[in-house]
Structure formats: C-alpha cells, structure tokens
Amino acid sequence: MKPKFDNRVFWKEANEPASGGLWSDPVPASPASMQAEFRAPRRRARVHEEYVAPLPVSRSPEERSNFRAELINQHVLVCHPDHIQKIYNQGYFGKGVLSRARPDHSISDQWERESPPVTSSSGAWPLPCSSWLSVYLQAFFLVYSLGCLSVYLNQEPLSIIQLWREFRSMRPDFVSSFAAYQHCRSRGWVPKGGGGAKYGADLMLYRKGPPFYHASYSVVIERVDDAFKGSALRPFSWRSLAALSRITSNVSKELMLCYIIFPADLSDVELDSPVCLSRLKVQEVIVSRWVSTKERAEQDDI
C-alpha cells in the first residue's frame, strides 16, 4: 500500500499582518489551502531483508495471531521470541531492550550469562533480557486497532478500557499522540518514536519500514480546538520553529505539524474511553522554509 496523506497542506504566510509585523505565534490559526508537493521517500542504499507484511494480522480467522505482553515498570514488554519476531517483521513494531533495532538474541544471551539481574528504581526487573520493548502507542494500536495483542499486569489480562486509563495516567498527551499515530498507520506509513533526541520530533514516518527507506517526515503533534486554538503541547517561538525546520531540512526530511482537533463539547468522561477517538479530527500541515536564492534560481529557469 502506497503511503499517502489525504489532506496535506503547505504552510505559508498567507495571513501576514497588514502592518508588516510578525505574528506573536509562528503557527497560523488556519493553514493555507495550498497543496503540498509530494517528495518520494529516499530508499536506503543497502537493504538486507525482505518485506514481509504491513501488519501482523491475517484475513483468515484460523491464522489470527494472539500475542502476549507484560506491563512492567511502565513498560510494555513482549518476551516470547516468536511473538517478538512476528510483530517486528510485520509492521516493525517495538524496539529492542538491548539491541539497537532488530531483535538480536545473541546480545541478550551474552548479557544474561555475564551480567547481574536488571534492576530499576522500583525494584528488580523480573524478566529475561531477551525481551522486546513496545512503546505505549504501538502497544495500544496492536490491542485496540488490530486486536492481536493482550497486555497482562500481575498475570491478569487488562481490558481495553483498563489499558487506555493506564496509558493516560502514564502519559498526559496519550490521547492526542495515539490519534496521530493511528492516523499515520491508517495512511500506510510506519511511525516510529525516539526521534525527539535527534530531530526534535514526536514521530518519524517511514515507507514500509526503517530497513527499506529513510524517514520522510518528522512529525510534531499538537492539540487544538475547533478554532485551532489551545494550550500548545510544545509552544514554538519563531526562532525555535526556524531551528527545527532547518534541522529537518538538513537531514532530508520534511517537517509536519499534526494537529489533533478536539471538539469543544468533548467531556472528560468521554476522554476516559477510546470511543472518543471517533470524535477527533486530524489536520496535517507541512512546514517548508522559503529560500530566496532557490526561488530566484527556479524563476530564472522558467
């Protein structure tokens, strides 16, 4: 399935103040309705594996998978080796506890032989080091959207509502983050976290998966109301937005602001259940730097 965005727009200073001054808020209240130019994803020079499937599910009920994970110390961990391989090979879900990306049991086996038990601030970590870590967004997508994962706490399975409440308590922005994650997955992209330290983004979007293509988009998630107003999860100044845009451009990616629009009448009671996701809307805005020398060269070519 070819990745796509149905409502991508190009962010442009279309509503510049008549006085010629700058907005106090660098993100416009309403995005300009100008279609963004699609850039093809950059394929990696060397690919060492084959593409298996976009998701770890089957159309046949007889072949339906039921993976298991444990919620331990605010981490969702998949321990069974077969489950680890399937959720990674089919959709690239999860991140290695010890290995960099793909599960590498040779590393974990060596760690188990040579290292003492893993401990944390809340006590010992009672599981083998060959486990596989799946972040909240990926875990809840496998549980709620695909129905192929069960998460256990103290050997008891958690219901969807219980898991939703657990994740909300652990991560205040979970509702808006999951809405953005599910939206990108539904468009055929593979969203991966962990780009915040390198690129200052919440998600990185890949075609097919990280082994095949470089990330195409750095995504920043923002929560707004119907009027595109609200308390920003990450308040931007002109300088910070320009810096983030330059960093994204220097690594050959595009910066996307993903607005999760909450209706004004959405209550806290509704937010206590994943049913509220049906009332949320998503608007993507592509932020592009305007380079005068590049524009001048293009005009000369014309």
From TrEMBL:
Keywords: Lyase, Nucleus, tRNA processing. Residues 174-260 form the tRNA intron endonuclease catalytic domain. GO terms for molecular function: nucleic acid binding; tRNA-intron lyase activity. Its main location: nucleus. SUPFAM superfamilies: tRNA-intron endonuclease catalytic domain-like. This is tRNA-splicing endonuclease subunit Sen2. The keyword Heme does not apply. It comes from the Eukaryota. It comes from Cyclopterus lumpus (Lumpsucker). Pfam families: tRNA_int_endo. PANTHER family: TRNA-SPLICING ENDONUCLEASE SUBUNIT SEN2. It is found in: Nucleus. It is an enzyme of class 4 (lyase). CDD domains: tRNA-intron_lyase_C. The keyword Nucleus applies. Constitutes one of the two catalytic subunit of the tRNA-splicing endonuclease complex, a complex responsible for identification and cleavage of the splice sites in pre-tRNA. It cleaves pre-tRNA at the 5'- and 3'-splice sites to release the intron. The products are an intron and two tRNA half-molecules bearing 2',3'-cyclic phosphate and 5'-OH termini. There are no conserved sequences at the splice sites, but the intron is invariably located at the same site in the gene, placing the splice sites an invariant distance from the constant structural features of the tRNA body. GO terms for cellular component: cytoplasm; tRNA-intron endonuclease complex.
